[in-house]
Design brief:
Hypothetical Protein Ta1238, Chain: A, mainly alpha, 5 helices, 4 strands, single chain, about 180 residues, two-stranded antiparallel ribbon, about 60% helix
Length: about 180
C-alpha cells in the first residue's frame, strides 16, 4: 500500500462521513490537534526517564487522547460514536492538582523558559490554546461533542502546571514577566 492516495490533489480531504476543502475550519481544528500531538512528542523526548516518569506517562496518555479528539473532530456522521470521555477531563484535573502542588506559589506572570523541558511544555500549552480557539470557532458553526473543548481547556492548564513542576524539580526558578524590560 502506498502512503499517497492522490485523493487530496484537488484540495479536498475526507472526513468520516463527508468530504471538505482542506482549509475547512474542521480540518484546521483537527490539524491543530495533530500539531499539538507532535509537540507533545517533542516534549516527551526531553524528559528524564527516571525523574519524570509520571509526566512521561501522562503525556503518553495525552497523545492517545488527542488522537481520539482528532478522530472525533473528523467525524461528521449522524449518531457518531465519539471516543472523548468526561473521564479524560477528571484525570487531567487530578494531575494538574498534583503538578501544581510541586511548584512554589506565584504572584507574577510566568514566561516560557527555565529548563528546556519546561519551555517545551509551554510550547505545548500555546499550541493547545490555538487548538482550543480553532475548536471554539468550529463550535460557533456546528455542534460538537461537548467534552472536546473542555478537555483542551483543561489540557493547557496541565501543560502550564507541569512546566512549573519541571522547573521546581530541577531547582530552577520560573522566568517571571517584568513589565517594561
Amino acid at each position: 500500500m502506498n502512503i499517497y492516495t492522490r485523493k487530496g490533489d484537488t484540495g479536498k480531504t475526507s472526513l468520516i462521513g463527508a468530504s471538505v476543502h482542506k482549509d475547512h475550519i474542521r480540518v484546521e481544528a483537527y490539524g491543530t490537534v495533530d500539531e499539538l500531538n507532535s509537540v507533545v512528542g517533542q516534549a516527551i523526548v526531553t524528559l528524564n526517564e527516571k525523574e519524570d516518569r509520571d509526566i512521561i506517562e501522562d503525556l503518553s496518555r495525552i497523545q492517545h487522547e488527542l488522537f481520539d479528539i482528532g478522530g472525533d473532530l473528523a467525524n461528521v456522521q449522524e449518531n457518531a460514536n465519539f471516543q472523548t470521555e468526561e473521564a479524560y477531563i477528571d484525570h487531567l484535573e487530578k494531575r494538574i492538582d498534583e503538578y501544581w502542588s510541586q511548584a512554589p506559589s506565584i504572584n507574577a506572570f510566568i514566561l516560557p523558559g527555565g529548563d528546556k523541558t519546561s519551555a517545551a511544555l509551554h510550547q505545548c500549552r500555546t499550541v493547545c490554546r490555538r487548538a482550543e480557539r480553532r475548536v471554539a470557532s468550529l463550535m460557533d458553526e456546528e455542534a460538537l461533542h461537548p467534552p472536546i473543548l473542555k478537555y483542551l481547556n483543561r489540557l493547557s492548564d496541565l501543560f502550564f502546571a507541569s512546566a512549573r513542576a519541571i522547573n521546581a524539580r530541577r531547582g530552577i526558578e520560573d522566568v517571571t514577566y517584568q513589565p517594561g524590560k
